[in-house]
Fold:
Amino acid sequence: MGQVRADTADALLRRIAVEQAERRIPALAAAVVRDGEIAWFGARGRVAGEPPTPDTQYRIGSITKTLVATVIMRLRDEGRLDLADPLRRHLPGAPAGEATIAQLLSHTSGLTAEPPGPWWERTPGAPAPGVLADDELARPPHRPGRRLHYSNVGYALLGQVITRLRGMSWDRAVHEEVLHPLGMRATTTRPREPYARGYAVHPWADVLLPEPEHDAGAMGPAGQLWSTCADMARWCAFLAGHTGGVLDPATLAEMRRPLAVDEDGLRHGRAFGLGLQLAHGDGRRLAGHGGSMPGFLAGVYADPEDDLGVLYLANTTSGVSNTLLSDLLRIVAEREPRLPREWTPLPADPDLLELAGPWYWGPAPYLLRLLPERGLALEPMSGQGRASRFTPRPDGTWVGLDGYYAGETLRVVRHDGRVWLEVNTFVFTRAPYGDPAEAVPGGVDPDGWRAAF
Structure:
């Protein structure tokens, strides 16, 4: 669809202008990414006396974690590790060694949020042997898998897993395996000009305090990297599905599945997948991450279904509103809604065509629709209930892709000229509790349906 229209661009610019002015942000830059490309860029404020450009660097903080997680998933796809592996298998003697790689990725390892010692984000980093071998870390506050508890320490440990399995530093692995293939050459471990300096803004006066910036050492995988709007747009496109060969699309989809949520997330539709923060609202399912370091805030989220994403970079310790990105998305969606894909007929095998239409799980009506490449979708007609899509297997069965029946087997059973569906012991028949009644587990009352209790 290319660039947004002029009126849309004006509305987007006004939104970030209000944000920068009212929230008193030294320099704010934002972008909309559509169909894998920047559709709009806007900025307000000054960096070294000039307006920010798409090539101005900011620190991206915890967005670093998404890149680290991507290298971990590459290692998994190569068979170098399993998500169910305990950490001790790859880092003998590490704190919380019984926590799994998946739990570290999804912040359910039980580890403390921050490492012992002074505030790591504002002090020079120490090497891994000193930080990650601290006795305090051997006593995590939560049992692995018990709850979502965001942990920067967990990602420091994942960085060490990368170092051990790749034989190189975590950041070198990120650069070689993710950044360079995606053309993100302006994303660096330390800042390079032109870059925004980080500031705290006084709460009651219009004055600034420069924030310190250091190499985070062992904690680097939790929030070290610097990037630009141009590079973050490429990362936004990646999150939307333009993987560029860095990951199998199925692996990225796996990262986007919700694995953990806390009480606050339940109220606001937020959860964690494998290295990705997930948000659900206004009919969208977004995947991405926020970033925060002293002097900097950032965010990048994408809607894979609509191939639409947004991002912002700001050089302030606090103050960016929680609604900035959702407001930018809403402006684009309301003013330039995506046209639905043109409908075109698709070939359907005769043996599948006869299966399309209504089925019944007991008395509950369901609809079986045909999808491309012999796929199936089984959905409750009421819109409430267990809906899943299925993909065919070579043996003539189907396996669930999502929803309640994810990973479960669907079979089409044919006997004596009759047909029914079986999905993990559940039976779907052509009539409510019948046709054929003998296929229904537990049988059907021989007197059939009646009008009296």
Q: What stands out?
A: Residues 6-22 form the longest helix (17 residues). The CA atoms of residues 290 and 299 lie 4 Å apart. The chain has two domains: 6-335, 350-439. The domain at 6-335 is CATH 3.40.710.10 (Beta-lactamase).
